[in-house]
Amino acid sequence: MLKLPALRGKLQLLSARDPSLQSLFEAYDEATSMLDRQRSSQLQDRAVLTEYELICREIEEEVIAICLFNEDQDMPGS
Questions:
Q1: What is the C-alpha separation between 57 and 68, in angstroms, rounded?
Q2: Could you tell me the sign of the dihedral formed by the alpha carbons of 7, 11, 14, 16, in that order?
Q3: What's the longest Cα–Cα distance across the chain?
Q4: CA 23/CA 44 separation, integer angstroms
Q5: CB 3.0–4.6 Å: which of 19, 24, 30, 35 could bond 52 by disulfide?
């Protein structure tokens, strides 16, 4: 999660507790790779570029939501 360096430690802890997060990380890796390829391509397809930007943003938002939810669960009195 290169765009989320502040959450890296938290993500490592969460993925150790919840192996299903690994598939989310893999999806993000694939989406960002495709996005990078599209951005560097001489024959850019604007629709594909926009779609992968959206996919990456949605995955990032989902990861942040998971972190925030788990942070709330870890707080005493929750």
A1: 16
A2: negative
A3: 55
A4: 28
A5: 35
Cα–Cα distance for residue pair 6/19, rounded to 1 Å: 20
> pLDDT tens digits, the chain, 78 residues: what are they?
556 777 788 888 888 887 778 888 899 999 999 999 999 998 989 999 999 999 999 998 998 888 888 876 665 554
What number of other Cβ atoms are within 10 A of residue 72's Cβ? 9
The reported pTM is: 0.77
Contact 19, 26 (CB under 8 A): no
Both tokens of residue 36?
Answer: 């990078």
Integer angstrom CA distances of residue 19 from 2, 9, 48, 55, 71 = 19, 15, 30, 21, 17
CA dihedral (5, 67, 21, 29) positive or negative: negative
